[in-house]
Design goal:
The strands form four sheets. The chain has a seven-stranded mixed β-sheet. It has a seven-stranded mixed β-sheet with strand order 7-8-9-14-15-16-17. It has a three-stranded antiparallel β-sheet with strand order 10-13-19. It has 313 residues and is α/β, with parallel strands linked by helices. It folds into two domains: 260 residues, Ribonuclease Z/Hydroxyacylglutathione hydrolase-like (Metallo-beta-lactamase, Chain A, 4-Layer Sandwich), CATH 3.60.15; 40 residues, no CATH class. Helix content is 25%, strand content 29%. Helix 9 runs parallel beside helix 10. Helix 7 links the parallel strand 14 and strand 15.
Length: 313
């Protein structure tokens, strides 16, 4: 059975607190395991949350401020120690290459990790296969910072009656799903002609940024948007000065972008609990969850099947 779940490893900005580790988020998406921004202590948080390093297929670092990357050294060394057999791709801003190398080579260890380094220098897709793609967009922070969007490609549910009407039988249906079209009695039948389109699910990750167009591009119609809500709106000027968002801004973005579930995190240490942040974001968006360390949050159910020839997505 496939699993699509966010596991929250840390929710603190800048410094850890008694009840909050620094940033760290693990997304299970079927056979993919994506670790976002491993801050200090992430390896230990993974143990508490039952996340094995062998489940990591990709590591995505938004930027090289300490609370988003200081745990990378321990994670890489643990990948080596456990002799994880598969390659692990690591995405990070190209301008931070020396910071990445410093973390990778922070101390002496027997390096057996199969790391595939993917430095990012511009907006666009950083990974794609037949099922999904991952995009990066440059955000507006004090140093080069990227947000990420994992987009599952649309699939089709074949309609038996339409298959019968077009004379598609047996293995032809499987070929149709794989190739997108088949030739039947001299006529090309496309999968769009005999199926309903099921939009793929989308997960968006936005941390450490001021308002900018990339925020809205990443968040657009996401099933789950994981977004910073560092301050309450009474500190909006401070948020802007330091390159952050308020809870109100996060809620408004989620509303404007048609997001299903907004998950907020990256709380300033001035807030002992995130209740007020969640309440503020909820004034703008109906489905908000304030993440807590150790939370396991399932992606919402897919949007309903829609006719293949329908407009939009």
């Amino acid at each position: 059975m496939s699993e699509r779940r966010l596991i929250v490893l840390g929710t603190a900005s800048q410094v850890p607190a008694r009840e909050r580790n620094q940033n760290g988020y693990f997304l299970r998406f079927d056979e993919e395991g994506l670790l976002f921004d491993p801050g200090e202590g992430t390896q230990r948080q993974m143990i508490f949350s039952g996340v094995s390093v062998s489940g990591i297929t990709r590591i995505l670092v938004s930027h090289f401020h300490g609370d988003h990357c200081l745990g990378l050294a321990g994670i890489i060394q643990r990948i080596s120690l456990d002799r994880v057999p598969h390659p692990v791709e690591i995405y990070y801003p190209a301008s931070g290459q020396r910071y990445y190398e410093n973390l990778r080579d922070a101390c002496s260890y027997h390096n057996t990790a199969r790391l595939v380094e993917r430095p990012i220098s511009r907006d666009g897709r950083v990974y794609e296969d037949e099922r999904l793609f991952i995009e990066a967009r440059r955000l507006d922070h004090d140093i080069e910072t990227y947000g990420f969007r994992l987009q599952e490609k649309d699939t089709y549910t074949l309609i038996p009656q339409r298959l019968h009407e077009e004379g598609i039988k047996g293995g032809m249906a499987g070929r149709l799903k794989k190739e997108g079209s088949v030739l039947v009695n001299g006529k090309t039948v496309r999968i769009e002609d005999v199926g309903k389109r099921m939009p793929g699910q989308t997960f968006a990750y936005v941390m450490d940024t001021r308002l900018c167009p990339a925020v809205f591009d990443l968040a657009s119609r996401a099933d789950m948007l994981l977004m910073e809500a560092t301050f309450l709106s009474d500190l909006e000027d401070k948020a802007r000065e330091y390159g952050h968002l308020t809870a109100a801004q996060a809620g408004q973005i989620a509303s404007d972008c048609g997001v299903k579930l907004l998950v907020i995190s990256h709380y300033s240490q001035r807030y002992l609990a995130p209740d007020a942040l969640e309440e503020e974001a909820s004034r703008f968006h109906p489905l908000v969850r304030a993440a807590a360390d150790g939370d396991r949050i399932d992606l919402p159910r897919r949007r309903r099947d829609i006719p293949a020839d329908a407009e939009g997505g």
